[in-house]
Structure formats: structure tokens, C-alpha cells
């Protein structure tokens, strides 16, 4: 290939981007969506934005460990660097074949992200990334390398540099620049450097060994020890400040056998299986957990049905209310916080917005309760997957040392949806029935998103991953730690390959080969690596619900009544039966079977709700597989006989009873003193308490009063379900700008290409602005004349245009007609025919004859 035929190497990132096709540019904008917020005017502005500190930091944080190690190696290489130099820094003198195989892919990823540009002979890391990753005393490099010889000797006197060169066995030079070059050449020459170090005392070599992998800085006294003096005299250690020395980068690389990193990690760590179970066992266990999740949320909302806890002034639940909720649900407080946050994320509870603000169920809860169980589960897990609110943070402290409360502010973590999906995707890549070792999952996540300069305790992604594993088990997405079939469908992943079950095991499965590791990256049917779009997730959730539905237990239409005034529900009950039994009896214990206890208070509650004794007898006879015990029948009849014997109305309140002896008994009771009762007539008592307080007071005394209306009819007091006004579920907090969809991406690419065409179109000499990027400026007469001439010749023109909103842009147009103060032209930048008002054209310039 002749020199003229070779492609011209790009001189800037903008030129490198200009050489990309639409597919490559689109990949960049998808991976770094902040670059099109807002859409840049041209590729030069896109390149400038890609080099800003905030954007580069965000891009570096999304690199996997090996790709980040590659960028760190480029930061300590020459600028520009050849591919062979980079390979040497990554693979070392031993030329690790795994590193050599993975390096091209890492370099492609850096190029795609616009963090590296240039051909393999001139690789350049963008300046901002080099500044962030290159070694400095304030910000040590993750490589542990120090400054180069040239950088370390920048402030050294010429005489001292000549002394070092001579002691190192090099001829003296006439200037410091050549002396430093010679010294760097010595340190970079493997044979000469080995000969120099062969003369070093053993204790001097020990000093180098302590500094070789970093930090490269050490402290010395004003009178260094002989072992240090030997190194300082030969430049193997160089002073950087009084009392401080540094190991030059070239010396460290020789001692490291060329490696920029002690342990390059080209291959992601495998996710290992801690146990293996039969898939059927996993699915049935997960289905049982899914049903428990539904009943737990229903129990929570039932507890808050008549109005839940008050909202704190700063927002959220108080610690006391969270403890009370945990006791009611019979779960630990962190688990109670999870269920509360899940119901909130699904839009089932919200604040009522009243002056005395309280939490309550939303109207959406009533709709949710009427759905089939599998669809109700789908609503919960879909909300969980996309929620950024993180229940695991409840009880911790925010940046201002304030306690984070359930349903309160400060719980959003934008990385949560991505981490949840990624953890489940790693589980989906294991064989069916395999439960992962949690530590191997965390190791994989740390490789995919390594911590840069953060303490291990600040590993939010690691904590999110641990919470995901436990929450997935609570929700029934996993069973015994392994991903279920409906959990796999929830991710949009294909079903795992069927395997003949070898029997259930509670410990590690028998390995099929050496070791017991199940590497994720070898699995041939992985789940999608990124969260699904809302439309895709809706389809996946519906598919998961269809798989789960036949696994859920069928609700029962009966209970077993026992002589000790209890009823046993051997499984989940049909909703009408469960609702009625919840009014007629109190739940005594829960588990595989629920035990209900009948008490005078619970029977009275049913009578207050409008039931009669005959209704209750018929209900129990119809729904019990055992005969109704006599004690229960006597209890219902006894409470019913006394129910409504006393009537309470408004006086403030009054009590009336046909049996004046009963009223006399009430007046004689000392507990009635607080009610302020006095006899108005033989069958009527007046009270200072209000009707509700009078009802409660008489019930506490052992009576069974009934409320009555102004007409004297018994009031049926059903529990009123309190609902908030219609509320929407909380919106997830996005992790930066959203990834553009295909329509937005196509429009952005078109706009960037159009702007770039206008800004780079060559103009005739002597026309156009003096500085790049300025709009052309011409008078109205010259603009009109140039337009009219272009109509006749068919030439294209470069114009500056200001739209009705005042936004200025550059365009390349081919005028077709000029009349009435408007020019009709083919707009090359928009690829369409448009009409421009002449008064909005700031100026015009002719393009060069060879302009495309």
C-alpha cells in the first residue's frame, strides 16, 4: 500500500469520532447517554463533552476490572503508546496468553466508550482519563507505580544529575536532558539493568522489593544509611521532597518484569454453586414463599385498613410503629421494613395527605386483592425489580447522621435495579437447582464494577447484592437459594437446559469434573445483562405469573372446628371464608396451618357487623369438616342473647334497657364512674361520655351493648376501610440520564451529523468567519444576491440561521427558489426541503468547489 493510500491517522478525538459509522456512534451514545443530554451540535462538541471530568469519571466507573486495568496501564505508558508497549505492560515479560487474548476486547471497549482513540500504533487515552489515572503524590495510581525518571528529576540540579549518570556507569553529557534520557534508557534496558542490580548490596535490593508494588514513596533522613545511599547515588531512588524519595517508574517495571499490575485479571471470576437441589423442589419451595409473601402483604394492609401509623414530620414511620408492625407480622424489624417498602413501591399504601397525616391503603390495593394470586405476585416482584428505594438502609444513618426510617426520604439508591437484575442474571446462568455461593457472586460483581479508591465497607453494590439474595428468597423468586422457573421467566431468560434429577441435596452437589465450580461465563443461555424495558418487563412478568400459577396452593373452602373453641385452617382459605372468619375469630397462630380462636369479643364483633346468631351457626356448619362443638354453639347463643340488650344513643349519650335491674347493676359498678351516668327514667341512663366512649366503657365492664340510631334501630357497625385518594407508585430515581431508545438515538445521530456537516464544510478562501464555530455574517443585500446566484448555478451554500426560539445553528443548503422574503432550499443537514425566512439568516458563505 502506498503512502497516499493509507488512511490518515486521526489528530483528535473529534476526528476519530468523525470516522465512525452510525452503528459505532450509536453504541457510544447508548453506553454514555450523558453525552446527548442535551444533543450536541456536532462531533467536535460531542468529543469535548466526552472529555469532561464528570463524564469520564462516570465512564470509568462502569468499566470492568480488566478494562480498567488496561486504561490504568495506558495512563503510565508513553503518550501515544504502541499496542506492543501496552501488551508488555499488561502481560509482562512472561507474555501471559490469557491477558494477550483478552486485551484486544478491553481495548475495543475503551475505544467504544471514547476513552481511547487512535490506531494500534498511536493509542491515546483521553487527557482527562490520563489525569485521573496517572500517578501523582496526591493521587497514587492503582498500579502502584511512581513518576518517570524525567518527571522525578524535573527539579534536580544539573550537577546532581551528572553525578548520578556517572555513578550509574554512564558517560557524562553536556546537558541535563540527554543525561536524563540516558538514565531512563539504562533503566529500561533489561540486560544493562540486570548487570547494575547484580552489583547492589542485598539490603539495598530489599529496599527496592518493599517499594516495587507500591506505594513507591519512602522516607529518608538527612544522612541516609549506606544501603539507601547506594540507591540514591545511582538514581534507583530519586528525591522528590526533603526527606522523601521515590522509586522511578522504569526501575519498578524492570523489577516487576514489565507488569503494570501485580495481578492482571483478564477473566471474570466464576460464580460457584454452594448446593444443588432438584428443580421441582426449588420451584415448589419458591411457590410456597411467593404465597407467604402475598399473605404477609395482605396482613400488613389489613392491619392498616382502618388507618395506619402516623407520618413523621420528616416523613416515614417512627421506630415504634415499625416495631409494632414487625410484631403484628411476626417478623424481624428489617424484614418488616422490606414488606412496608415493597407495598409502598407497588402503590398499595401511601400517605392520606390529611392534616393528621397517616398511612393507609390506596384504592389500588382493592383492585390488587381481586386479582388471581399469581398476578398479585407479579405486581409485587415487578415493583421490587425496578424500585430504587432500598429497605436494607432502614435504621442506618444518612450523610447528616440522621436515622433513615422506613417510608422516609433518603432510601433511594439508583444502582439498586441494575444490581438486582445482575444478581438474578448470574443465578440464571447456573444450572437448574444450583444455589450460588454468595461470596462468589460478590466477587463477580466486584470484578464487573471494581471499587475505585473506596473502602470495602463503602461497597454499596455488595450490600445491594446481599439484600437481593435475601429479598428474592422472601418473595419466592428463588427457592433454597436457587433461581426458580418463574424467577427465570421474570428476567426474560430462556428456560435452563433440562437435566435428569440426581436427587435433592442439602450440601454441595457432586462435581462433574475437578472442583465444584460452575463458571457463569461458560453457560450458553444467560439471562439478559441489562434490565428490561418496561414493555419487555411486563411481558416477562406475565410469563412468570403463568408458570407460577399452577404451583400455588389451591384455597380451601373449609376449616376444622375443635372443642377448645378453636378452628384450624389446614391451608390458605378462599377469600370470603377468610374474611368472615377474620371477623368471627382471632388468629392465634400462623404457619403451615392457621389456628383461629373464638372469644366473646370476637363473636360480639361479628354481631356488631350485622350477623345474627342463626347466621353464624349456619356459616360454621357450612364450612366445617367437623361437627360444630357444643361449647362454640353455647358461646354464640350466650353472646347473642346479651347483644343489644342495652342500647346507646346520643344525649351526649344515653343507655336504655327494658330491664331496669340491669341499669341498676351498671350504676352500682365502680367502673362506671368515669362515664358520668345518671338515671333519667327506670329504663334510661344519661351519660357525659360520647356514644363511642360509652360503648367501649360498657364492653370493658362485661356488657354487650349495641348502638342505635335516632329512630331507635340497631346500628350495624362494620369496620370502615380507610383509603387514601388515588396515588401513583413512587417513581424510581434514575441512575443518570436514561439510555436513549432507537427513535431518540436516530434523531440524535441525524442532528449531530447534520451539525457536523455544516461546521466542517470547506468554504472558499476569503469567505466565512475567521474562527471555527462562528456563524457567517453578511449584509442582507449580499445574502440575497448570493442566494439568487446559487439558485442559478445550483451550488450549495453555508448559512448561519437563528430560529424562532433564538437558537443559532449552521446549515448547508442548496437554494431552489427565492421570493417574498423566503428562500426555499434543500437542507443537506436535515436531508429535506425547507423554507427559511431571509431575515433569520445571519450570513452566507460559498463552499469550496471540492466540497461534498
From TrEMBL:
Domain WYL per the UniProt entry, residue ranges: 782-844
GO molecular function annotation: helicase activity
Region (Disordered): 134-153, 493-535, 757-777
UniProt biased composition (Low complexity): 493-509
Keyword annotations of the record: ATP-binding, Helicase, Hydrolase, Nucleotide-binding
Source superkingdom: Bacteria
Annotated Helicase XPB/Ssl2 N-terminal domain residues: 559-681
Keyword Cell inner membrane (UniProt): no
Name of the protein in question: Helicase C-terminal domain-containing protein
Amino acid at each position: 500500500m502506498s503512502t497516499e493510500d493509507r488512511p490518515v491517522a486521526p489528530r483528535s478525538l473529534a476526528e476519530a469520532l468523525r470516522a465512525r459509522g452510525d452503528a459505532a456512534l450509536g453504541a457510544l451514545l447508548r453506553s454514555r447517554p450523558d453525552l446527548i443530554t442535551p444533543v450536541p451540535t456536532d462531533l467536535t462538541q460531542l468529543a469535548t463533552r466526552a472529555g469532561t471530568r464528570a463524564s469520564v469519571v462516570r465512564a470509568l466507573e462502569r468499566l470492568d476490572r480488566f478494562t480498567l486495568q488496561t486504561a490504568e496501564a495506558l495512563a503510565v505508558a508513553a503518550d501515544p503508546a504502541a499496542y506492543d508497549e501496552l501488551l508488555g505492560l499488561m502481560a509482562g515479560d512472561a507474555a501471559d496468553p490469557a491477558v494477550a487474548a483478552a486485551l484486544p476486547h478491553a481495548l475495543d471497549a475503551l475505544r467504544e466508550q471514547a476513552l481511547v482513540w487512535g490506531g494500534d500504533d498511536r493509542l491515546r487515552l483521553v487527557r482527562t482519563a490520563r489525569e485521573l489515572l496517572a500517578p501523582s503524590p496526591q493521587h497514587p495510581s492503582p498500579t502502584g507505580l511512581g513518576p518517570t525518571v524525567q518527571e522525578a528529576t524535573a527539579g534536580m540540579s544539573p550537577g546532581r544529575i551528572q553525578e548520578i549518570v556517572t555513578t550509574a556507569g554512564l558517560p557524562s553529557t553536556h546537558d541535563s536532558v540527554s543525561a536524563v534520557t540516558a538514565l531512563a534508557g539504562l533503566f529500561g534496558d533489561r540486560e544493562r539493568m540486570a548487570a547494575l542490580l547484580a552489583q547492589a548490596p542485598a539490603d539495598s535490593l530489599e529496599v527496592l522489593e518493599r517499594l516495587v508494588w507500591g506505594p513507591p514513596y519512602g522516607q529518608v533522613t538527612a544522612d541516609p544509611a549506606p544501603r539507601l545511599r547506594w540507591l540514591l547515588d545511582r538514581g534507583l531512588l530519586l528525591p522528590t521532597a526533603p526527606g522523601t524519595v521515590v522509586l522511578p517508574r522504569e526501575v519498578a517495571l524492570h523489577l516487576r518484569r514489565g507488569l503494570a499490575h501485580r495481578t492482571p485479571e483478564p477473566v471474570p471470576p466464576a460464580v460457584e454453586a454452594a448446593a444443588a437441589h432438584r428443580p421441582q423442589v426449588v420451584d415448589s419451595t419458591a411457590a410456597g414463599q411467593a404465597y407467604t409473601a402475598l399473605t404477609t402483604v395482605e396482613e400488613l394492609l389489613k392491619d392498616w385498613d382502618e388507618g395506619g401509623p402516623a407520618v413523621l414530620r420528616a416523613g416515614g414511620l417512627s421506630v415504634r410503629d415499625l416495631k409494632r408492625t414487625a410484631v403484628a407480622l411476626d417478623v424481624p424489624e428489617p424484614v418488616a421494613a422490606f414488606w412496608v417498602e415493597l407495598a409502598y413501591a407497588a402503590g398499595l399504601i401511601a400517605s392520606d395527605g390529611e392534616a393528621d397525616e397517616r398511612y393507609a391503603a390506596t384504592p389500588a390495593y382493592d383492585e390488587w386483592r381481586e386479582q388471581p394470586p399469581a398476578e398479585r405476585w407479579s405486581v409485587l416482584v415487578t415493583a421490587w425489580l425496578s424500585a430504587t428505594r432500598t429497605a436494607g438502609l432502614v435504621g442506618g444513618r444518612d450523610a447528616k447522621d440522621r436515622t433513615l426510617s422506613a417510608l422516609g426520604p433518603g432510601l433511594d439508591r439508583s444502582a439498586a435495579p441494575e444490581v438486582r437484575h445482575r444478581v438474578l442474571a448470574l443465578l440464571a446462568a447456573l444450572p437448574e437447582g444450583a444455589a450460588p455461593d454468595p461470596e462468589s457472586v460478590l466477587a463477580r460483581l466486584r470484578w464487573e464494577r471494581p471499587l475505585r479508591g473506596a473502602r470495602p465497607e463503602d461497597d454499596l453494590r455488595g450490600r445491594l447484592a446481599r439484600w437481593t439474595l435475601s429479598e428474592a428468597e422472601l418473595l419466592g423468586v428463588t427457592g433454597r437459594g436457587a433461581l426458580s422457573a418463574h424467577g427465570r421467566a421474570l428476567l426474560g431468560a430462556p428456560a435452563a437446559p433440562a437435566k435428569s434429577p440426581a436427587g435433592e441435596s442439602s450440601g454441595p452437589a457432586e462435581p462433574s469434573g475437578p472442583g465444584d465450580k460452575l463458571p457463569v461465563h461458560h453457560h450458553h443461555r444467560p439471562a439478559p445483562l441489562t434490565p428490561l424495558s418496561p414493555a419487555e418487563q411486563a411481558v416477562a412478568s406475565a410469563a412468570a405469573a403463568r408458570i407460577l400459577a399452577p404451583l400455588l396452593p389451591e384455597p380451601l373452602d373449609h376449616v376444622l372446628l375443635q372443642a377448645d373453641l378453636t378452628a384450624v385452617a389446614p391451608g390458605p382459605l378462599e377469600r370470603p371464608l377468610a374474611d368472615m372468619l377474620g371477623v368471627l375469630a382471632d388468629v392465634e397462630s400462623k404457619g403451615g396451618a392457621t389456628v383461629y380462636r373464638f372469644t366473646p369479643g370476637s363473636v360480639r364483633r361479628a354481631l356488631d357487623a350485622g350477623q345474627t346468631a342463626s347466621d353464624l351457626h349456619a356459616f360454621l356448619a357450612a364450612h366445617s369438616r367437623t361437627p360444630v362443638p357444643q361449647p362454640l354453639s353455647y358461646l354464640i347463643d350466650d353472646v347473642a342473647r346479651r347483644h343489644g340488650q342495652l342500647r346507646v344513643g346520643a344525649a351526649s349519650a344515653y343507655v336504655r334497657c327494658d330491664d331496669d335491674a340491669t341499669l341498676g347493676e351498671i350504676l352500682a359498678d365502680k367502673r362506671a364512674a368515669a362515664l358520668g351516668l345518671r338515671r333519667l327514667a327506670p329504663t334510661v341512663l344519661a351519660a357525659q361520655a360520647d356514644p363511642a366512649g360509652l360503648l367501649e366503657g360498657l364492653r370493658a365492664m362485661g356488657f354487650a351493648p349495641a348502638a342505635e340510631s335516632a329512630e331507635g334501630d340497631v346500628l350495624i357497625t362494620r369496620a370502615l376501610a380507610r383509603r387514601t385518594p388515588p396515588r401513583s407508585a413512587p417513581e424510581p430515581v434514575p441512575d443518570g440520564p436514561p439510555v436513549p431508545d432507537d427513535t431518540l438515538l436516530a434523531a440524535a445521530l441525524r442532528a449531530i451529523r447534520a451539525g457536523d456537516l455544516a461546521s466542517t464544510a470547506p468554504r472558499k478562501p476569503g469567505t466565512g468567519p475567521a474562527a471555527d464555530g462562528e456563524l457567517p455574517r453578511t449584509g442582507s443585500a449580499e445574502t440575497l444576491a448570493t442566494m439568487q446566484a446559487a439558485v442559478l448555478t445550483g451550488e450549495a451554500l453555508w448559512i448561519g440561521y437563528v430560529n424562532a426560539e433564538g437558537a443559532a445553528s449552521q446549515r448547508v443548503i442548496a437554494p431552489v427558489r427565492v421570493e417574498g422574503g423566503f428562500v426555499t432550499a434543500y437542507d443537506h443537514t436535515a436531508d429535506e426541503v425547507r423554507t427559511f425566512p431571509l431575515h433569520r439568516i445571519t450570513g452566507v458563505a460559498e463552499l469550496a468547489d471540492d466540497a461534498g
